[in-house]
Amino acid sequence: MSSSWGERVKISIFGGSHTQAIGVNVDGLPAGEAIDEQAVLAQMARRAPGQDPTATTRKEADTPRVLCGLLEGVTTGAPLCAVIENTSQRSKDYENLRRLPRPGHADYTAYLRYQGHNDIRGGGHFSGRLTAPLVYAGAVCRQILERRGITVGSHVAAIAGEADTGFDPVNVSPELLGRLNQEYFPVIDPKAQEKMRAKIEEARMDCDSVGGIVECAVVGLPGGAGNPMFGGAENLFASILFGIPAVKGVDFGAGFAAACLRGSQNNDPFYYDESGNVKTRTNYAGGILGGITTGMPLIFQAAFKPTPSIAQEQDTINLPAQENGKLKVTGRHDPCIVPRAAPVVEAAACIAALELLAQSGLL
Amino acid sequence: MSSSWGERVKISIFGGSHTQAIGVNVDGLPAGEAIDEQAVLAQMARRAPGQDPTATTRKEADTPRVLCGLLEGVTTGAPLCAVIENTSQRSKDYENLRRLPRPGHADYTAYLRYQGHNDIRGGGHFSGRLTAPLVYAGAVCRQILERRGITVGSHVAAIAGEADTGFDPVNVSPELLGRLNQEYFPVIDPKAQEKMRAKIEEARMDCDSVGGIVECAVVGLPGGAGNPMFGGAENLFASILFGIPAVKGVDFGAGFAAACLRGSQNNDPFYYDESGNVKTRTNYAGGILGGITTGMPLIFQAAFKPTPSIAQEQDTINLPAQENGKLKVTGRHDPCIVPRAAPVVEAAACIAALELLAQSGLL
Amino acid sequence: MSSSWGERVKISIFGGSHTQAIGVNVDGLPAGEAIDEQAVLAQMARRAPGQDPTATTRKEADTPRVLCGLLEGVTTGAPLCAVIENTSQRSKDYENLRRLPRPGHADYTAYLRYQGHNDIRGGGHFSGRLTAPLVYAGAVCRQILERRGITVGSHVAAIAGEADTGFDPVNVSPELLGRLNQEYFPVIDPKAQEKMRAKIEEARMDCDSVGGIVECAVVGLPGGAGNPMFGGAENLFASILFGIPAVKGVDFGAGFAAACLRGSQNNDPFYYDESGNVKTRTNYAGGILGGITTGMPLIFQAAFKPTPSIAQEQDTINLPAQENGKLKVTGRHDPCIVPRAAPVVEAAACIAALELLAQSGLL
Amino acid sequence: MSSSWGERVKISIFGGSHTQAIGVNVDGLPAGEAIDEQAVLAQMARRAPGQDPTATTRKEADTPRVLCGLLEGVTTGAPLCAVIENTSQRSKDYENLRRLPRPGHADYTAYLRYQGHNDIRGGGHFSGRLTAPLVYAGAVCRQILERRGITVGSHVAAIAGEADTGFDPVNVSPELLGRLNQEYFPVIDPKAQEKMRAKIEEARMDCDSVGGIVECAVVGLPGGAGNPMFGGAENLFASILFGIPAVKGVDFGAGFAAACLRGSQNNDPFYYDESGNVKTRTNYAGGILGGITTGMPLIFQAAFKPTPSIAQEQDTINLPAQENGKLKVTGRHDPCIVPRAAPVVEAAACIAALELLAQSGLL
Q1: Least crowded by CB within 10 Å, which of A325, A335, B157, D111?
Q2: Closest CA to A23 of C66, D68, C27, C279
Q3: B4-359 topology per CATH
Q4: CA distance A67 to D85
């Protein structure tokens, strides 16, 4: 398989960077949900390239055409399929990639996997462009979640070592998330953004690229969603998050940092708040214990490697010649995809959260 | 669902800490594979408690009884089910946990998920004891992999901040893995182990616990295994690894560290080695590009939170009284589960690697 | 895969005719359901051999041991695993089957599928004995359904051409089903049973066997359960029913007979009954339209081929000699399995109905 | 879920009778397979309405647009998505169906399932029109099968009780299938077609409709494909066949007729043919034993109910008024869909056969 995910809310993503169109089919959405098209487009605009000096100058109209699944803007319960035409394609930019696979890219592994029949143009089905339909599907799921009091937002937690202030894990407000999830380059502390931009600009000047981390929160999830072992919330979120190109790590709550903590620090004490709701005083668990939600904010991080497409000359192999070679990647590429990745991470989180609720009979 | 995983090699784990027995059913193993029982037991012994001062003193015989699936020690192709009797149970140790859920444990979330009907004794189905059948299944898969030239091993990369030397990612030898995957407390640098043991002992004296990191490598995997997007090798490995209790983070190759690198560092240059095989000069990718294996060592890390069961008094809620309360966990608990987790991580990696090959038509 | 089924209520069946034990793991049962062990055993007794002249004389104690998943007789929500020891095994009866595969059996196809490594003894994993754990799982699901007002029962609709009276499809009473689902050889018209028994006895005297049809009804299902296309109720029921050995056909409502009807006959007119409930005046649809339940009785038939194990000498191949050969099957075999199949069909229907409700958010 | 099927070759069908477009995404096709577009269109033409007096006069261009997955006519291994625009829509024909659900249709059950939000126009996602993308996907799979020596064909075995000659089950020639799978109204005996046409015409004159049976064969499948129990070939084929609207029964080989046979008749004796291949002298098993292929022709039947849309006035309910009512269905409808269903059955068989091979590691 390549691009299908989910049991109750199934998404199937199709297309490649330079195919006629790309799109997504979403099967299993609840019926009767009004979908605000403008709000969907706003999410897609956050991911779209060409709008900021940190990103590629390639422009995409990226207006999805809904083929089915909505009737007068309301979900019918039947599969919802949305298609985005590919219009801005410079196929010739990629002609030499079949010979000289790009380091850090899937060119070589796709060649192995598909015996050379894969569509190499623009990375084909492995292109970051495939995150556009993912954002579409996530934006639809987001509206269904919001109707149930669940908000999803993220910020760029770090780029090239420059860190933003983190979420206060016990007190992530829907208002903060509501601000972040409308921004192109969401950060909690504006000063952090400046430093990050400087790092990106530095990399661009060096014909290089930088990686970073997106931290994402889901607030309003009921406790009791999820399952033990392999059916846990962490497994579910990780299984979609690693589908975002360039994600190389995922952790929840304190995550990797928990490896340095003691139990007395990392254990989150339960208490009844003034309204009689069960809460935890800290939230090192990131809202998940034993794979099941506690009702506290579900918080996770996704680590992005630096964009592999850089303009520097790189060593690689020459496949037809079966000898070592040199490659200089041309074309338009982001020196840092992390800001544009934030809405993609949120989209994946929205889809995962909806699936989690559906699996747990809580939708 | 709770405890089923896999499409081609399906495992179903059952049982709880204090049920009559626990076990695993493995459906989809290739037929005709001789399984060396002693090698399986050796893996189970690495996970078994009671053998080292860092671990709980609870003793388990943990001898699995194979109900079916082997004929004269050879897989028949039909489901292989192995059962381990539960004999050493002190159920009274856990009587107060239904009232006072342990911070950092699944007691409270399981209460929500199962409306209080869950088996609280020893953590029930959420117990770390459920990793015994996982190790069983992994040990079977390991032998099938080894017959195909694939070796899996791991080491304790860190405990409470004390780090072992990491794998050389381009040069992980099967011999090193073969040594590590027989040890109880596997480390590459023996001096690191001493420091780790000191940290564990310190925590024990403080009635506390510590977390850590396991780094695992799979060598010998062919290139071209895996799929784009959600069907990638990372997604597959993460979806089983997060099923190990206490895992809160997973990353591949440079992982979270890649977020601080530049593309020119993180891109692994391809080259033909003297035998004409395609390799990469570095391996920041951890052997996976675009979800598909490169043929270089597949390397990942799993972060473990500190054991939540500590002997210190902790704040929690009193569920029947609906008021805040205090809990002192008694019973036998590990101050650090990380050394015992190494064979569990390897087991999960073995199962995931076999599934990956099966899905890719490479088995 | 071989023996796993279901998405929300997953069953995994393991074991073979002559392995140490057989059993079933059920993952995804709702928590808090009291399970009456005697009622479970009553269902298993209906399937057990050795109790009637129409069946094999092989005796099985068939008392399942519940390893986990029940706490004081109530489901915990964790996987429920039940194991049945194999005690009455005459392995030598089957020694020549590896050489001379039985016509109509899976001996030859299993040999191909598992390259000769399959367990041939008693048919191995293909044995009808594997329906014992299926009946166990079904009996558990049945009690959960009954608590929700849903009753499942069946009758032997035909054996060797001798037909029982069929269900009145618009008026299947839970009382009738409640009688049938306790009987060993359930029929609506007792006179039909006599004729069927005569046919079976005739076949036995001829060292031959006969097939038949089981008709099953599920009453009390809410309308609106199911999905269009591949997620339909028919697809779901068929996908488990064809897992019962010897089933070669499944149809719903008028089924194959509908192929001879006109639309004006086969269309079931809707009406409001005196209580304001929507019903249909006829029920040629068998309670399913467009894959979704109407709320009328769900009725289907399963066709069983005659038992392939017959005492007559038969032509077959000699695999090691690679030449044609002759086989005389010895051992104890049923001249007709259809009466014993009725509880198996009901069990499959119970599991499918529970899965259908779970998938539809109606559990 | 509604419209996703398959594990290794996953199809997702989307759209409704009157949505902007319908289509199918196929994920998991092998790479490097040349797809002849004309051959695909020829299959779609067999299903298309408006070409024969037995069918509806609605015309559809039904030219699929391939959005992705093919590069210069060859599969890339990435998802293949094809879209068919909906152009000939008379939405007003269906306006009263939301009030007055058609007997025998999914109007009422979809209303329950989707709380009235379903798209009622033309049956929405439940429309027979959704079989167009199924035929598309099947036609692609068919070419991949044919390249491996596997041929699929079917004939109209019966309409309204008028039967065609059946396949000779041990001797179904690829040539016969190759003729049948190009015809609009495929029959083995041309005289049977005349009688069937007469029955259809009779029904049309009576403003009524008739049902029928399609018999389908797959020849060239290797032996050893499939699995025991729920993973059997029968389960797999049935699970997709019941997704074709109006299918109410499926059987394999002798199927329901086997219920009247004796074991000595129904058992297919194995023998070595002159080339040393294992065959069976008869083929009552329909090429499947224990869920696994024997290598003999795989033969099955699918029973179709009569088209529910008839022009006669019918009793139904008036949902908004909550009282009984009368309905006269207008619009264009087939008096018999069985001839047009033959290519749909073949398409499903092609998809199932490819999935079966992929699951069995035989692709």
Answers
A1: A325
A2: D68
A3: Chorismate synthase, AroC fold (3.60.150)
A4: 9
Give B-chain residues touching C12 at CB under 8 angstroms: 4, 10, 12, 25, 27, 79
* β-strand partners of D85: D21
pLDDT of residue D333: 79
Strands A288-289 and B323-328: unpaired
- Between helices B338-359 and B233-241, what is the axis angle to 10°? 140
Query: With a cut of 0.90, is the ipTM above it?
Result: yes
Is residue C60 scored above 70 in pLDDT?
Answer: no
Q: How many other C-beta atoms lie within 10 A of the C-beta of residue D179?
A: 14
Distances (CA, A) of A186 to A302, B326, B344, C332, D237: 15, 41, 38, 74, 50
What residue has token string 């009193």?
A: B318
Mean pLDDT of chain C: 94
Return d(Cα C360, Cα A354) in angstroms, integer: 15
CA distance D287 to D272: 16
Residue type, D76: T
Among chain D residues, the shortest Cα distance to B9 is held by: D359
CA distance linking residue D3 with residue C66, whole number of Å? 37
H/E element, C174: helix C174-180
CB-CB under 8 Å, A78 with C228: yes
The full 3-state SS of chain D, as one line of letters, equals CCCEECCCCEEEEECCCCCCEEEEEEECCCCCCECCHHHHHHHHHHHCCCCCCCCCCCCCCCCCEEEECEECCEECCCCEEEEEECCCCCHHHHHHHCCCCCCCCCHHHHHHHCCCCCCCHHHHHHCHHHHHHHHHHHHHHHHHHHCCCCEEEEEEEEECCEECCCCCCCCCCHHHHHHHCCCCCCCCCHHHHHHHHHHHHHHHHCCCCECEEEEEEEECCCCCCECCHHHCHHHHHHHHHCCCCCEEEEEECCHHHHHHCEHHHHCCCEEECCCCCEEECCCCCCCEECCEECCCCEEEEEEECCCCCCCCEEEEEECCCCEEEEEECCCCCCCCCHHHHHHHHHHHHHHHHHHHHHHCCCC
- Binding-face residues of B in 251-270 toward A, CB within 8 A: 251-256, 258-270
Question: Per-residue pLDDT for chain A (363 aa), expressed as one digit of tens each?
Answer: 579 999 999 999 999 999 999 999 999 999 999 999 999 999 999 999 877 666 555 555 678 999 999 999 999 999 999 999 998 666 565 668 789 999 999 999 999 999 999 999 888 999 999 999 999 999 999 999 999 999 999 999 999 999 999 999 999 999 999 999 999 999 999 999 999 999 999 999 999 999 999 999 999 999 999 999 999 999 999 999 999 999 999 999 999 999 999 999 999 999 999 999 999 999 999 999 999 999 999 999 999 999 999 999 999 999 999 999 999 887 777 899 999 999 999 999 999 999 999 999 998
Quick one: pLDDT band at residue D329, thresholds 50, 70, 90?
A: confident
Residue B99, CB half-sphere, CA atoms under 13 Å: how many? 14
Distance between C290 CA and the closest CA of chain D, angstroms: 5
Q: Given an 8 Å threshold on Cβ–Cβ distance, is B108 in contact with A294?
A: yes
What DSSP state is assigned to residue B281? Answer: S
C305/D254 Cβ within 8 A: yes
C positions 7-66 inside 8 Å of B (CB): 7-8, 10, 12-16, 19-23, 25, 27-28, 31-32, 65-66
Task: Give strand pairing partners of B279.
Answer: B271
Do the chains contact at C12 and B21, CB–CB below 8 Å? no
Residue B91 pLDDT class (50, 70, 90 cuts): low
- What whole-number distance in Å separates Cα of residue A200 and Cα of residue A335? 6
3-state secondary structure of B239: helix
Measure the CA–CA gap between D121 and D102, rounded to whole angstroms: 12
